[in-house]
Amino acid sequence: MRRIIVGIILLGVMFxxxxxxxxxxxxLSLEQSKKMIELGExxxxxxxxxxxxxxxxxxxxxxxYNVDAWEKYDELMKLRAKNEPIKWDKIQVNCxxxxxxxxxxxxAEFE
Length: 111
Hints:
67% of the residues lie in helices and 0% in strands. The protein is an all-alpha fold. The longest helix has 44 residues, at 2-45. It is rod-shaped and about 75 Å long. The termini are far apart. Keywords: TPR repeat.
């Protein structure tokens, strides 16, 4: 009986420890996702499309629920698929640094 109680207590402690580690890991992923968005936006400012795509893809990998990262990644992939020269003066980047969108289309507006 004593062994069963000790086993149950140990399992409970183990599950609590796993949940704490999981929460810490997800916080790091959210931070890394925001950092990847910032780096992607900087790459767009420097007109480096390949790096921007890589950073936005990593942002999505770190946080698959980040709509801002998905929209930017999707828009870049559409531009790349067209295989046309990019009109950099028509692209406006939201570099708020927060990783959150401030408008309906946070990545670009085409005239």
